[in-house]
Design a protein that fits this description.
The protein is built from eleven helices and eight strands. The chain is α/β, with parallel strands linked by helices. The protein has an eight-stranded parallel β-barrel with strand order 1-2-3-4-5-6-7-8, surrounded by eight helices. The radius of gyration is 18 Å and the shape is globular.
């Protein structure tokens, strides 16, 4: 049975929050996994990290970790000082995730988010820097037992790679069992000719699947072809987590970064929607 998770920021307007209350929340709403901001744990004390991980274990909730590296931590930067700053930050994150018993960090572990290509510039220069960084980072990940999951993100939020095919080229160049792909149904809906073909292409390199509708609502509140997606997941014998990453709240830094400019759901009952969606995912994707 595949684990069903959800990203904490579904409920938030800001990225930096206390993660502790979300553990019992997602447990009560029918989830197995809570994905939190990996960057935030770097600045926690060891006592705070232990308290968080112990509470998750007590409630039988798996913690997973996502990151959208900020511009001052851009491991694909042409500025070597910024790139080194990002490498050092990621190394600390890998060690802290390992300390908490986590086994993966997902997202733009390979660059910053969001990022657009400067005019008349070449993406290959940034790609080269990113690969240099990742080949260094993955050695630490191997030592710590942490897998780095490189997310394929749509063209409006990143430019290094947008499709599964491009992402596979990237991780094959890194060439480590501790570097895999993260696919996201929202981004695939924009970029892929076929979502199911992308899943089949990823195969055993698919480390995690983010799920959400075409409109970025929770699964079951849009028009994604979940039946076909399940068939593809079954075909590759996918045993990883299905982590909801919906965003419907306007306002704050989260709304700004995700570009939520309107009231997507009128007076939403976020908990009820998450609960209904968890039941939908278990019925249709597990």
């Amino acid at each position: 049975m595949r684990k069903v998770g959800i990203y904490y920021a579904y409920w938030c307007n800001e990225w930096d929050v206390d993660f502790l209350p979300f553990i019992s929340k997602v447990k009560n709403l029918g989830y197995d996994q809570l994905e939190i901001n990996g960057g935030a744990i770097v600045n926690m004390s060891s006592t705070e990290r232990k308290f968080l991980s112990d509470e998750a274990k007590r409630q039988n909730i798996t913690l997973s970790y996502g990151i959208g590296l900020t511009a001052d931590h851009d491991v694909s930067s042409l500025d070597q000082g910024i790139r080194r700053n990002g490498i050092n930050f990621m190394k600390e994150m890998i060690k802290k995730v390992s300390e908490m018993g986590g086994n993966s960090i997902c997202g733009t572990v390979y660059s910053t988010w969001p990022k657009t290509l400067p005019k008349k510039d070449s993406r290959f220069k940034y790609l080269e820097q990113s690969l240099l960084s990742m080949k260094e980072l993955v050695k630490v990940a191997e030592d710590e037992g942490v897998i780095l999951l490189c997310e394929c993100i749509n063209r409006f939020e990143q430019f290094l790679f947008n499709t599964c095919s491009q992402g596979m080229e990237y991780i094959n160049e890194v060439n480590s069992p501790n570097c895999k792909i993260l696919l996201d149904t929202f981004h695939m809906n924009i970029e892929e000719d076929s979502i199911t073909d992308a899943i089949l292409l990823a195969g055993d390199k698919l480390g995690e699947l983010h799920i959400g509708e075409n409109n970025r609502k929770p699964a079951g509140y849009g028009n994604m072809d979940w039946k076909a997606i399940k068939k593809a997941l079954d075909k590759i014998d996918y045993k990883g987590a299905l982590v909801q990453e919906p965003f419907i709240l306007p306002g704050g830094q989260v709304g700004q970064d995700i570009a939520v400019w309107r009231e997507i759901v009128k007076n939403p009952d976020l908990d009820e929607m998450a609960k209904v969606s968890a039941e939908f995912v278990r019925k249709n994707l597990c």
